[in-house]
Fold this protein.
Amino acid sequence: MRKTLYIQLLLLSVVIGAITFVISLVVISWLPKVASEEGERIDAIYLFTSIICIVIFAIVAAVTIYAMFKFRAKPGELEDGKPIHGHTGIEIMWTLIPTILVTAIGIWSAIVVVQNDDLPDDHRIVAVQAQQFAWSFTYNDERDGLGGMQVGELVVRVNEPLELHMTSPDVIHAFWVPEWRQKQDVVPGITTFYRITPTEEGVFPIICTELCGLGHSVMRNQVRVLNDEAFEAWATEIRSAVDGGGETLGKSVFQNQGCAACHALADAGATGAIGPDLDSVLTGQSAEAIRQSIVDPNAVISEGFAEGVMPPYGAVPEDQLEALVDYLATAVGDGS
Ligand code: CUA
């Protein structure tokens, strides 16, 4: 009798577990494709934890469903059930097994945190500035001749370990690339570190995940992970734009500082729609007015747009800012 009960419960658990497994881990993919070494380790823990949860859920659901049908009160049956004292064996089991499982998850997680924090000495360093409401990136070592170059979009090599040194001049932000899994706060007054080894080429979103003000939801950027050849071509392009100076530099600053994400500008092939269309608002504007709109965006707000959404771009190196103003003045302003 008892043996039949156990076999029935076991079969029910297996069926419920299998259905839950298929629905939650096979049919629905909750997370985007993983694209970093660190992310693979994190996903392995997610999978381990999910499987533990599914097994426990299956057992609890099986006992509940079994009891609902097997021990249902018969019509007209009104008396209380027999008083039963606890079962020491089961109590020890339901204390011991969860303790072992939670400890296992804890130990494995601690190992992964240490592994993910441990980057080989040979890695690229990029300084990240998070500012209401934009990201900017400065190549902080001499690799590929990019030392000191500031860009508005993160571009990295696939399989090259990367360390971001992150700072914020205003409030707390958080750097997150869903495909890389890792997430790190960017806190005013200190430098925080983000270590990653990208394993997949592609373009992935960078998302601010700390409520940081009015423009928090638009505080997005992207990281381009390139193979060696494409990365070197990009580095050459950036270097020559900076060396070339003048209009080439101005246009490159516009494209690389993320301006194009929010503004439309025909000459640069930009079609952003979050901020004013530069082809119309800058027409006939003097270089001075254009400069003011970049370093102090709240001084003049175009009709239909909100104050405080555009970040002040005072952090751009002076020669780059100069080139950007000249470029915009020539492209759409009054040319002065
Ligand atoms: Cu920065 Cu949210």
